[in-house]
Amino acid sequence: MRARAASASWDGHEHAQQRRHPCRHVLSGRHAEGAALRRRAPPAVRVLRAPSQRQQLEALKARGDANGVEGLEIVDREFIVEREPAVDAPVALWSPETGIVNAEELAKALLRSATDAGAIFLPGTKLVGADRQSDGMVLRTEREQIHARVVVNAAGLYADDVSRMLGGETFTIYPCRGEYVELAPSKRSIVNGLVYPLPHQHSLGVHIVKTMNDDVWLGPTACFQERKDDYESNRLPIEAFVEPARRLLHGITIDDMRLGGSGIRPKLHPPAESFADFLIRRDRENPFVVQAAGIESPGLTSCLAVGRLVAQLTDAGD
Questions:
Q1: Which of 99, 108, 132, 229 supports an S-S bond with 41, CB 3.0-4.6 Å?
Q2: What digits encode the pLDDT tens for the residues 165-195?
Q3: Which runs of consecutive H residues, i.e. helices, occur in 137-260?
Q4: Which CATH class is domain 122-173+275-316?
């Protein structure tokens, strides 16, 4: 069962200011309660290891404030010990509005809402071709043809392939695998919430998440690869997580960890670049296509806001 941290835009990229959809607003109401979607709110701390990083932490807080994140506070060692005694840091950025959601239950809740509103879900249906016509697109599957006024390309790791099939813009999705380890059951109680380091070039960095089931994950790593479907080849050994774990928690050893899962991010930039924002707009080549591509994990907790934006873009073409 997967969990996902639900925090607003307080990551390490300047362009994150473009994402003004704090998830505490979008994951609320019937989706968080009426749809029986479980949500828990363990506050998060983002920690620094050296006084020289204080300026970076303050810049991160300023960015979060500008994005409307409430309650952010730079706290001292005494504050950290009171709330996360196992965390090894002299100073941290405290985020009391952060929470976690069950990603699988969120997806199921959204599917129920969509089908109740008349959407038709076709699982296991492969797109094999598409033809542009004067009034829209004709999509060809292995079983039928579907006429669409507008096509939203939200194909994740395969969004670049689908865009080419639709006659849309040319871009490249770069698969970037992230791997996790889990703390042994005997060590789960030493973590109360979410603990982040200062951001890594390509990700939030290896951080700590306490899930809905009280499992504790450390990850994800960030490694670009060629294949979009390879989750297991050349997995990192547990030893690779020991040092990142020790930067956050006191006294963690290799015996305290075991291998966890992995996932692949659909990045819009190659390894030599550090950031590319989500691609959410009307396609510049095909007016019957709306792109929703290159959406990494923040897109899950901001999915309702992304959905509203995509709906506006589809309606704007009428």
A1: 99
A2: 999 999 999 999 999 999 999 999 999 999 9
A3: 159-165, 239-246
A4: alpha beta
